[in-house]
Structure formats: structure tokens, C-alpha cells
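Course assignment 3, question 2. Fill in each field.
Student: A.L.
Task: Predict the tertiary structure for the chain below.
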Amino acid sequence: MTHLRGVKPALSPDREPLTKAPTAPKRLNAHARAEWKRIMPQLIARRIITKADLAGVENYCMAVGAVNQIAEIMAGMSIPDLKLGGLQIRYMQTARQLAAEYGLTPTSRARVGALGTDDDDDGASMLSIGRGRPNA
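Answer field:
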């Protein structure tokens, strides 16, 4: 299978996936812990997470926790803090990128089942549309 630049390989079940969700690390804040508890059953059920992936999942949860914590802080302000807003945006970007790594976005979830099957390809190329028809 060849990969083009910028194209991520399809996610597939791992050979040694975790079968039971580990408890959330104690260093996670309440928001991050809630995210851990929300996503871990999905990751375990899809069999795409291993013990080696736990640090990345923890980083994802920490980023989501930071986003929510900043949102709470900014909700109590009469004037938004632009530095906090910029920090929140960076945490959101990090969380989105990490979520894509573990199949937590709609696009990355679609890759989980896309192991080389292309049901909508009927053999006709888009470049050949209109060719081979008799001229009108």
C-alpha cells in the first residue's frame, strides 16, 4: 500500500489492544478526567488503543480539560482576556490533532473501516466521462 503525501494510513485494530479501560491519571483535572471517562470505552471497544498510546490519550484529555477550564474562567470575566483566548485556541488545535490520531473525529472514525474497500467506485474514471460516446 502506497501513501501519498498528507494522507494518513487507515486506523486498524491493534494486535495487543487494551481490553479494559485504565483509571484516569490523578494529575488530570476534573474536565480532563471526565473526557477520559467519556472516550476510553470507545477506544477500548474499537480495539485501537494499546498501553503505549496512553500518554497520547492523556495529553488529549489534558488539552480538552484546559480548553474547558479556560472557558469557565473566561465566562466569569466581563471583558474577554485575549491572551487566555489565544491559549484556549492553541489547546483546541492540539486536542483536535490528538483526537484525529485516535479516531475521535468523524473523519478519522471513517478511516477505521476504510481498509481498502471503495464501494462507490464502479470502474469508471471521472476523466473518461463523455469519451467514447457517439457525437450528437
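Instructor remarks: The CA atoms of residues 34 and 41 lie 12 Å apart. Helices lie at 30-46, 54-75, 82-101, 106-113.
Grade: pending
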